[in-house]
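We close this part of the discussion by returning to an individual protein. Part of our work consisted of pairing the sequence of a single chain with a tokenised description of its backbone. What the numbers capture is local backbone geometry rather than side-chain detail. The amino acid sequence and the backbone structure tokens for this protein are reproduced below.
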Amino acid sequence: MIRSQNQISIESNSSTMSDLVFLLLIFFMITSTLISPNAVKLLLPESTSKTMAKQNVTVYIDDTYNFFVGEQPASVDMLEPMLETEIGELQDACVVLRADKTVPVQYVVNVIDAVNAINNKYSTKHKVILATSPK
């Protein structure tokens, strides 16, 4: 009986696959720590409500009463035009207001007034939602 000397090996080397998975794991761990969901550090007021909404633009008011539309600094006078550019052609956008809990109510009302002015100008139905932290 004659046997063939050339046999094909079906085994695969799994060490390269584990190296690749390890490198991908390191990559995603590093990039996830670099992403900052909240650009401006705030101490939000507490609430038990769990209302979630699709946010189109975020307005921040920090503890020194500075306004930010997204991550762009803004003044009270610039709120309306900056929000107008961010919201664009949408009919019912949602503006999330992330205000520090030490901010007086007047600053919150300034943001609501800016959104209401846009609503009156273009006959839209944009709304403002106040972000809170869980109790």
